[in-house]
Amino acid sequence: MDLHLKIWRQKDKQSEGKLVSYDLKELNPHMSFLEMLDTLNEKLITEGDEPVEFDHDCREGICGQCGMMINGIAHGPLKNTTTCQLHLRSFKNGETILIEPFRAEAFPVKKDLKVDRSAFDRIISSGGFVSVNTGQAPDATAIAVTHQIAEEAFDSAACIGCGACVATCKNGSAALFTSAKITHMVLLPQGKEERSSRVLNMVSQMDHELFGHCSNTEACEVECPQGISVLNIARMNYEFGRALFFRKK
């Protein structure tokens, strides 16, 4: 199959970017989207041009590094699918594909399709952990957790931190990401000891990183490759209010 690509090219944070057109022919429709970009880069290198920078790691839909906007949609047209798990058979022969980096004030473009998502790391560092001394790893059944709670915690922990929620939100909000990490910890017994300080610190850091406010459009859940529920945001708001109440007493 043949494809016409329009890709955002930007030298660095300070430079102005622009869309550059490329044509690829005789592509295998069973190639992944990233394999298609690999093919393009091999072509560019052979021709003496600069290859397109883009994030990737596991290529198995686990690490969350491969995020980009494809025809205006985070990760592309398939629901609950990361960019690396998207294949060319999802597009039509001869189609024009617009490829851009995630757009958000808190995600500055480093080069081409590569953005700086270290703001997520700083939110996690502010409270997304259990700091009690647990010694050696306890027996898996030492602390009883009901099946329902375990499933809910796992659903929240499934967030891979790709940033699609931020890029999709019209306000650039990180509420879904932050709330998923908070919910995961607060549901489990090990995370309840620091539940108040955790939510206050993580929400404060989220605001400090210049992420926007949640406006309840639920676009984040729609574009999330893991299908993380916006109910996590409701829990985060509850935990935040609870923490403020007990801090005042």
Explain the layout of strands and helices.
Elements: E1 3-9, E2 18-24, H1 33-46, E3 69-70, E4 73-74, E5 96-100, E6 109-111, E7 114-115, H2 118-127, H3 147-157, H4 164-168, H5 175-187, H6 195-208, H7 219-223, H8 231-248
Parallel strand pairs: 1-5
Antiparallel strand pairs: 1-2, 3-4, 3-5, 6-7
Helix pairs in contact: 2-5, 2-6, 3-5, 5-6, 5-8, 6-8
CATH class of the largest domain: Mainly Alpha
CATH topology of the largest domain, what is it called?
Fumarate Reductase Iron-sulfur Protein, Chain B, domain 2
Strands of the widest sheet, in order across it, are: 2-1-5-3-4
Rounded to the nearest angstrom, the radius of gyration is 20 Å
Secondary structure: number of strands: 7
Order of secondary-structure elements:
EEHEEEEEHHHHHHH
Strand content: 5-15%
Report the total helices.
8
- The parts where pLDDT drops under 50 for at least 5 residues are none
Write the CATH homologous superfamily of the largest domain: Alpha-helical ferredoxin
**Sheet with most strands:** 5 strands, mixed
Share of helix, binned = 25-40%
Mean pLDDT score, rounded?
94
- Terminal-residue CA separation: 66 Å
Structural class: alpha+beta
* CATH-derived architecture of the largest domain: Orthogonal Bundle
The overall number of domains is 2
Shape: elongated
